[in-house]
């Protein structure tokens, strides 16, 4: 991709087509082929694997740094923990880089650090190293952060793979990667979509939607490990962050070379989120989330995975929303009125700086 003006725009960081082209055509092009990693940068998965160690680096520039239901600290820890966990690994250690703006209140920094610590305790993983820089006032909107982390294989992942092989004898993947989907697999969504993006938007614009829309940001590593250990049958796991559910499903289809058909009446959306999106002309399928996962599952275990999720606080609204097909490529939706709608890959998340 060559941008006509030759400059970075906000769309380059918003998920969707523009950001993916930037990563593929520039970043992967620059660093591809430099490593013999089992899951290298060329795979464009949410984390890499080398010598059975999962490595992830995630940066956050959310605006504002405090929003309903969360803050930049909780977001940074959760984002890295969840990306490691979605491959099937357990996070073991984190590194945090702070870029602080001159004039940031020390009370705000302490609030962020307290939030990070409590999220680390929730996830059962610690920050063990990092770096701090300060830049001139007016450059950042408070601060930006990077959290990197490592994770390792677990007995839960091995159990899950054994369960998968009972139903798919030719399954050879060792991790929960985007390319694992095959026709007939079911798509399970762990809960409502759009909550995080609308919560951040309300803080950015001072909007009141007549309800209490809160970010869903949370670490999901314990939920994922329990699902793999107690149920099994998952073949791919992904969190629908920037670009929302629509972008997540397109990543699955492009890497697996399949199609996905979802049912409109099965996608859980809070009524206040749906109403707010209608008021603002937004599609909740394209709005980012920070506490949900989209699971590809062998059909024989999809119902059991869904019931397990529904028994938990994090997954109480889980639903089987669709299935993988070989009949077409891309993403389509069966609407409640009986028609079909093509779900296009979003250009970018419609709400800027949500993470």
The best one-word shape is globular
Instruction: Give the class from helix and strand content and strand pairing.
Output: alpha+beta
Question: What is the fourth-level CATH superfamily of the largest domain?
Answer: PurM-like C-terminal domain
Quaternary organisation of the protein chains: single chain
Approximately how much beta-strand content do the residues carry?
Answer: 15-25%
Number of helices: 9
Roughly how much helix do the residues carry, as a percent range?
25-40%
* Domain module tally: 2
Which features characterize this protein?
9 helices, alpha+beta, 5-stranded mixed sheet, 14 strands, single chain, 355 residues, 60s Ribosomal Protein L30, Chain: A, Phosphoribosyl-aminoimidazole Synthetase, Chain A, domain 2, 2 domains, 7-stranded mixed sheet
Overview of this structure, please?
By secondary structure, the chain is an alpha+beta fold. The protein has two domains: 143 residues, 2-Layer Sandwich (60s Ribosomal Protein L30, Chain: A), CATH 3.30.1330; 188 residues, PurM-like C-terminal domain (Phosphoribosyl-aminoimidazole Synthetase, Chain A, domain 2, Alpha-Beta Complex). It is 33% helix and 23% strand. It contains nine helices and 14 strands. A seven-stranded mixed beta sheet has the order 9-11-8-12-10-13-14, sandwiched between helices. A hairpin with a 2-residue loop joins strand 1 and strand 2. Helix 2 runs parallel beside helix 3 and helix 4 crosses helix 6. It is globular. The mean pLDDT is 93.
């Amino acid at each position: 991709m060559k941008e006509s003006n030759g400059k970075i725009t906000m769309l380059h960081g918003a998920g969707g087509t523009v950001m993916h082209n930037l990563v593929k055509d520039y970043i992967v092009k620059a660093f591809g082929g430099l490593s013999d990693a089992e899951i290298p940068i060329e795979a464009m998965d949410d984390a890499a694997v080398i010598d059975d160690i999962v490595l992830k680096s995630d940066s956050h520039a959310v605006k504002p740094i405090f929003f309903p239901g969360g803050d930049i600290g909780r977001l940074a820890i959760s984002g890295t923990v969840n990306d490691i966990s979605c491959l099937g690994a357990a996070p073991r250690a984190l590194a945090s880089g702070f870029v602080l703006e001159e004039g940031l209140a020390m009370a705000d920094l302490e609030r962020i650090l307290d939030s990070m610590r409590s999220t680390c305790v929730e996830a059962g993983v610690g920050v063990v190293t990092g770096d701090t820089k300060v830049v001139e006032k007016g450059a950042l909107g408070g601060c930006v952060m990077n959290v990197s982390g490592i994770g390792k294989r677990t007995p839960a992942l091995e159990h899950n793979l054994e369960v998968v092989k009972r139903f798919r004898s030719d399954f050879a993947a060792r991790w929960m990667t985007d390319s694992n989907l095959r026709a007939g697999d079911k798509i399970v969504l762990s809960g409502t979509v759009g909550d995080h993006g609308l919560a951040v938007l309300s803080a950015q614009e001072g909007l009141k939607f007549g309800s209490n829309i809160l970010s869903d940001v949370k670490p999901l590593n314990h939920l994922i490990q329990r699902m793999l250990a107690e149920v099994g049958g998952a073949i791919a796991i992904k969190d629908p962050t920037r670009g929302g559910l629509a972008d997540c499903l397109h990543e699955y289809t492009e890497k697996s070379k399949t199609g996905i058909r979802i049912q409109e009446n099965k996608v859980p959306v809070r009524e206040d989120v749906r109403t707010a999106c209608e008021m603002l002309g937004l599609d909740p399928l394209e709005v980012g989330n920070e506490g949900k996962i989209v699971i590809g599952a062998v059909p024989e275990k999809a119902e059991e995975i869904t019931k397990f999720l529904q028994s938990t606080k994090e997954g109480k609204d889980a639903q089987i929303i669709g299935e993988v097909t070989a009949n077409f490529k891309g993403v389509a939706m069966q609407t409640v009125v009986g028609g079909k709608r093509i779900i296009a890959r979003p250009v970018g998340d419609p709400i800027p700086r949500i993470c």
